[in-house]
Amino acid sequence: xxxxxxxxxxxxxxxxxxTAAAYALNISQPSVSKALMHAESQIGFALFKRNAGxxxxxxxxxxxxREIAPLFERLENVRSLTRNLRSGVGGNIRIxxxxxxxxxxxxxxxxxxxxxxxxxxxxxxxxxxxxxTKALLTREADIAIMFEPIEHxxxxxxxxxxxxxxxxxxxxxxxxxxxxxxxxxxxDHSYIGSKDTGPLSDILNNALDQGAVKLxxxxxxxxxxxxxxxxxNGGGVALVDEFTARTRLAEGLVVHRLxxxxxxxxxxxxxxxxxxxxxxxxxxxxxxARVHAAHATA
Length: 298
Description:
Blueprint: H1 3-15, H2 18-25, H3 29-43, E1 48-51, E2 54-57, H4 59-87, E3 91-97, H5 99-102, H6 105-116, E4 120-126, H7 129-137, E5 143-147, E6 155-170, E7 190-194, H8 199-210, E8 216-221, H9 224-232, E9 237-241, H10 242-247, E10 253-256, E11 263-271, H11 278-296
Parallel strand pairs: 3-4, 3-5, 7-8, 7-9
Antiparallel strand pairs: 1-2, 5-11, 6-9, 6-10, 6-11
Helix pairs in contact: 1-2, 1-3, 1-4, 2-3, 6-11
């Protein structure tokens, strides 16, 4: 059977008549009849029994339709995708991002974007800093959202917004402080530190070195959200990014801004030879708005 024969058979079978099939295919009834008869001639058996102008599928037709139906479901998916791509609201967006942005900002943006653009599907990987870049280079992700860009000849980036490192503590750790803390104010408190977590660790370590601050580290974690949970359970104080701090707030926790320049950039990265699709570009505009809104309330 040729592809045209399969298409005509599918429409006649699903619509139940030559007339309805012709309407669905936007061709004349004689064209449908001719194509159907030619198909039967080619395969050597009847697909429909003809009785008083009515068509009844044969046993062979039922068997054939079972194999053909999934093909047309896929074809309709292709057509739908093509329509969505033409309007700029279809496709699949694969994202790799750092944990801090996976707690609220990006999930919120995905839900909002999907509600407005149901033709767009997402794949999300939450990875540590060095793994995010690897996901891009191995083509496992279309875009990466992370803190501070990397220098790589195959990767390009643009700034999405700004964040800052803040101190997180229980209410009674600094009961009399209503202004910004100095980093040195944390010296007499149990400190929940973090292992190398990329550029934020570099920013923080530089600030500690410049101020000659010696913190008493009692716990070391490899993800900021783990530090927040330890603080929430009364384990000490932590220095974390503002996005993690504010999305994990619970009764008894306080976010303190610091009297130091601990700001950092939030960036979108993608392969230089693979520009963002229209859907991805629109999505990143929404992420940018979410980042700005979150930082503005800090």
